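Tokens for chain A. Residues wanted.
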């Protein structure tokens, strides 16, 4: 009829894909992303596979991208299956999402249980930056090194913001790590990180 109007999200997506095709992206989204099919994939723990498909089909600011990734991260959080994404490109996004929503505690605890001291120190520092705690009283003005003293300082600042059973659980975990020989654990963490960094640099040079 000739009436001008703003294109719907679906119309816009189709037009952009036709004009500027993205490899692997379909003009019409797959039924795979429908709630019932998505839930079936999550029950089978295909988290990384689903996230890979979402990254191809949608841009990061697309409403469907946000809906689906949120559902996946919430599902993983509910089941404490963080390790399913560790080592993939999606782990950082999940960690950022949980921190942004103030739901980072379970991931912090998971890192402590796995003795990933270097990771938990980085994550708590990130959490403080996200929520602008770095400029508050008692904040960390300079980057901390990875050692026993700085670990205790970071955990002390973090535990000021948690209460009840969560705080008791975290305190107990920190105490057990100190008894297990924290310096050696940190040394091993750093060695593993250096090994991973070397591997990634090698892969980059190959390609």
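Reply:
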């Amino acid at each position: 009829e000739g009436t001008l109007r703003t294109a719907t999200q679906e119309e816009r997506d189709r037009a952009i894909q036709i004009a500027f095709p993205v490899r692997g992206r379909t003009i019409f989204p797959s039924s795979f992303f429908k709630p019932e099919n998505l839930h079936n994939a999550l029950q089978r723990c295909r988290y990384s596979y689903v996230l890979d498909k979402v990254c191809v089909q949608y841009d990061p600011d697309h409403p469907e991208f946000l809906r689906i990734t949120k559902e996946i991260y919430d599902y993983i959080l509910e089941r404490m299956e963080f390790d399913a994404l560790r080592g993939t490109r999606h782990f950082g996004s999940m960690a950022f999402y949980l921190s942004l929503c103030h739901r980072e505690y379970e991931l912090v605890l998971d890192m402590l249980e796995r003795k990933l001291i270097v990771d938990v120190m980085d994550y708590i520092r990130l959490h403080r930056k996200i929520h602008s705690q770095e400029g508050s009283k008692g904040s960390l003005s300079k980057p901390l090194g990875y050692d026993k003293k700085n670990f205790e300082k970071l955990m002390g600042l973090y535990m000021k913001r948690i209460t009840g059973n969560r705080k008791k659980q975290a305190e107990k975990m920190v105490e057990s790590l100190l008894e297990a020989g924290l310096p050696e654990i940190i040394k091993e963490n750093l060695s593993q990180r250096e090994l991973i960094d070397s591997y990634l640099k090698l892969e980059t040079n190959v390609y």
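The mean pLDDT is 91. Residues 7-103 form one domain.
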